[in-house]
Amino acid sequence: MTQSKVKSVTAPPAEARLSWLPQAPVDWQARLASLQKSDAHSLVELRVLAPYQLDGTQTGHLDRALSRALLHPGCSAASADVRLAVLASSTTAHLGAGIRVAGLRRGLHVAVHEGTYGQFWQSILEPDAAIADFSPNAILLALDAEHLAAGLRVASTADQRQHLIQASLDRLRSAWQTLRQRHACQLVQQLPLPVFDNLMGNNEHSLPGSPVDYLSRLCMQIRDCAEQERVDLLSLDRQVARDGLAAWHDPRLWLHARMEISPTAVPLFGELLMRVIAARQGRSARCLVLDLDNTLWGGEVGEAGPQGVTLGPGSAAGEAYQSFQRYLLALHDRGVILAVCSKNDQHVAETMFHSHPSMFLKRHHIASFKANWQPKPDNLRDIASELNIGLDSMVFVDDSVFERELVRRSLPMVQTPEMPREPALYSRVLADAGYFESVALTDDDLTRGAAYQANRQRAELRDHHQDLTAYLHELDMRLGWQCFNPGDIDRLVQLINKTNQFNLTTQRYDRDQLEDVMNQPGVLGLQFRLEDRFGDNGIIAIVIASLQHDRSMHIDTFLLSCRVIGRRVEQAILNVLASGALERGATRLVGRYRPSDRNAIVRELYSELGFSPLPSPPAGELRFDLELGQFTPLPVPATVYEEGA
Amino acid sequence: MTEAEVYHTLNEIFRAQFLLEDIDLTPTTSAVDIEGWDSLRHIELILMIESHFGIQFHSREVDSMSNIGDLVEYIGAHLHAN
């Protein structure tokens, strides 16, 4: 038999990753090293290195830099935002790094006090001076599976099992009450990793002495008790159902060092715990801001119209977008504020919400609706101010890596998850990111905190226009142009007939007509390709202009793909067009704007590019001209070159 | 993979873990020779080495690693078994 090189269906390895965060940049380690060389590295500077998908080693390095930064006077544990005491039945010394770095990611200074190994029960029974001095505002009680199942025998009867569970619950309840009396702070009970192996199998529950079954029963009852006692839970048992036990627990390390939690899971452990603590302090996110095209549905509604987008039954992709909407609606129903921030025409975008039969989200679910052509950071600020919430309580979801990077850069306090290309996974990413972690609390508490944060954030706003310009420069955009290339005719025809928004005249050509145009002397047809550091966007713009007898050049077609609107590409296009027109002996450019129901975005384009208005014919068309003798090329944030030259 | 290559890779892993440029491992290098090599860092190192070489140490090996010579020997045994 021959060996096949084709891989068979295999399960992916178990992982506990910060999957919603972007990968750390390649120079991450170098940036950390250079910060550490300067004496004055502060929390603020280190925080910039935190919102990445760091592994255990990177988390450790960042944590050690953090400890050194906190050696400065004024950074004592007493002044920490979170003072967490850990009482545990197993090794926890390795967990602190994950917890502190998860705090740093939120701009919180976290101090961790670890009880003496194996002494946690004494610390509860008798007042512990070290913990009292530390004055915690949160206590984590972490009891591992073996500890909790002690006393259970395979031969135990159902009655004996019930007694054991009751005794365990009584002990926990009294520990919680004692700790609360003594420290008056948040209590977090960690539920154990389900590390036991089956004795029976699928019907494990039929054996009263089964440790596997015992642990799941105990966890259920701890949930009820904790609810009554206002104790918050860290549900590692459920996280394991998500990630797989191997991602969280290494039996060798349990035996070698009594580590319940594997070092590989430490960054995620820190995140999960810090979410529960931040939620209790009213610091969870409150508002989800959504892009529209390719986020709530497939395709561009501004180009294809409501009937042309992918949404709803009929295709797996359509169902994927719809099921994401169902998840968003459920979040809305449990109190998350929804907002929209989209590069679209407001009317076209709202029509989609009113009229598309497969939209789970309706217009009234959206508290603030911004569909326009302003940079998204500006819109996010407007939404925050309109809803009177802090930018740091907002989450921004967009399928475009360009928009995500722009927002991360301009508004780092807004949480912007990495979205996968696959819409079927959108809801999983949001759930994994845990932005909206909630414990039982009153709405009033949340509102007060958020209103305060909003005022603080507004004071911190910087000049965003400068931000955008700098960002565009850093994108390393390369705009290549050439006269119409017959080899690209299919893409050119497609773009000419599909583009509705950034399209001055909405003049359509089929393939034959375009070939005719290409062959006419005096016609200048230009195509533009845009690359940036995220990749090649392909052909994104087309200009067709023809030289008249009076030496004016009339712009018949000027269009830009909606994917690259807002990147100041149009200025570069005008520069290329002007120089091409001059070469052909033209003395001025004449442009016209022919309104359609989709192209309001470019109504002012010619004015913005420096053209002067001309007397316009009736029927709403606007005409403009530009004297080429006085034209100086506009500044552009891109390198412009002639392709194939 | 030759023993020299294993040493070369280990040097890189140790330098990355301890952020020290001048680590140069020999068979007798042990935890006392490198500042910060405590029991927790030891476990992290083991996990890094495992994922880097695509191997898994036996519990017995985890317990009895006392110097770099042992480590290189165990790595070699796993690599040859594959």
Produce a short descriptive summary.
Chain A is α/β, with parallel strands linked by helices and 645 residues long. In chain A, α3 packs across α4 and α4 crosses α13 (266-280). The two termini of chain A are 55 Å apart.
Instruction: Give the mean pLDDT of chain B.
Output: 90
What fold name stands as the CATH topology of chain B? Answer: Non-ribosomal Peptide Synthetase Peptidyl Carrier Protein, Chain A
Query: Over the alpha carbons, how many angstroms does the gyration radius of chain A reach?
Result: 30 Å
Helix content of chain B: 55-70%
Strand coverage percent of chain B: under 5%
Content-based structural category of chain B: mainly alpha
Choose one word for the global shape of chain B. Answer: globular
Spatial gap, N to C terminus of chain A: 55 Å
User: Low-confidence spans of chain A: pLDDT under 50, at least 5 residues?
Assistant: 442-464
Spans where pLDDT lies below 50 across 5 or more residues of chain B: none
Q: Greatest contact pair?
A: A-B, 17 and 13 residues
The Rg value of chain B, from CA coordinates, equals: 12 Å
The CATH homologous superfamily of the largest domain in chain A is named SGNH hydrolase
User: According to CATH, what is the topology of the largest domain in chain A?
Assistant: Rossmann fold
CATH architecture of the largest domain in chain A: 3-Layer(aba) Sandwich
**Could you give me the name of the CATH homologous superfamily of chain B?**
ACP-like
